[in-house]
UniProtKB/TrEMBL annotation:
SUPFAM superfamilies: lambda repressor-like DNA-binding domains
Protein name, UniProt field: Helix-turn-helix domain protein
MF (Gene Ontology): DNA binding
Matches recorded under Pfam families: DUF5753, HTH_31
InterPro entries: Cro/C1-type_HTH, DUF5753, Lambda_DNA-bd_dom_sf
Segments forming domain HTH cro/C1-type: 18-73
Length: 285
């Protein structure tokens, strides 16, 4: 159980260990919930890392699973303690997608498909401000500013000199044509996109309108992969009131195959760069 200061990833690893212990015992989540007089959903949330877990929870679960090795119990208890620490994003208050930020912070690579907007990690500040204000019309200006600050902080993974995030993004042409903020904002945003695409760890491809129907028409999603083999890949799908995290190998595989089709149907890297630059010039005219 490798040490990791990221509380989100730590919770996830702890949940995987607890699930493994339950399965070794041959018990269902429902049976464990009945023994501890808690809901089955609590056991599920503890195992998938979506819920903060206390040392008492770990102690009770180890008791149900009859874990006799004190070293294992102590290690899990320490993981529970560490998982309750706060990541950098908690200083901004209640962030709806904090689980995702925790995963993104620790990811080694990220594959993103977005049919409507430029992905957050590649957005300029004016574009992000206009996008968030437009998407959340009833949000107070202070909350919009907080979300923008978080988005700009997340981008440090792209510029990190020691541990940059490997980012591959496929965009639909609609994301380039939709005027967010103003034509000047869009010009600057697309020029920034071209600039970022020249980084060795950032790849940008575009699917033009004339490509017709393609596998990404169902909507946006992201695939996160991690440096530690113990951390399985995650498919993230953003929702209005709640987000979806898919971790089953079969689900991740299906989305990965779909992403390969998107990359194959998109313009290649140089063609995409030229395509984006041409639209940026159109906004300048």
């Amino acid at each position: 159980m490798a040490s990791n200061v990221n509380p989100t990833v730590r919770r996830r690893r702890l949940g995987q260990e607890l699930r493994r212990l339950r399965e070794q015992k041959g018990m269902t989540a429902e049976e464990v919930a009945e023994r501890l007089l808690v809901s089955q959903s609590k056991i599920s949330r503890l195992e998938n890392g979506r819920r903060s877990i206390s040392q008492r929870d770990v102690r009770d679960l180890c008791g149900v699973y009859e874990v006799e090795d004190h070293r294992i119990v102590d290690s899990l208890m320490q993981m529970a303690k560490d998982s309750r620490q706060q990541g950098w994003w908690h200083s901004f208050g209640d962030i709806p997608y904090s689980v995702y930020i925790g995963l993104e912070t620790d990811a080694a690579s990220l594959r993103v498909y977005d049919p409507q907007v430029v992905p957050g990690l590649l957005q300029t500040r004016p574009y992000a401000e206009a996008l968030i204000a437009g998407a959340l019309p009833e949000t107070a200006p202070t909350d919009i500013d907080k979300r923008v600050q978080v988005r700009m902080r997340r981008q440090e993974r792209i510029s990190s000199p020691s541990n940059p995030l490997r980012l591959w993004t496929v965009l639909d042409e609609a994301a380039l044509r939709r005027v967010v903020g103003s034509r000047n904002v869009m010009r600057d945003q697309l020029e920034h996109l071209v600039e970022q695409s020249q980084l060795p760890h950032v790849t940008v491809q575009v699917i033009p309108f004339d490509m017709g129907a393609h596998p990404g028409l169902n909507g946006q999603y992201a695939i996160l992969e991690f440096p530690d083999a113990a951390d399985s890949s995650v498919v993230y799908i953003e929702g209005v009131t709640s987000d979806l995290y898919l971790e089953k190998a079969n689900d991740v595989h299906k989305y990965s195959v779909m992403y390969e089709h998107l990359r194959a149907q998109a313009l290649n890297v140089e063609q995409s760069r030229q395509f984006i630059a041409k639209i940026a010039k159109d906004y300048a005219s």
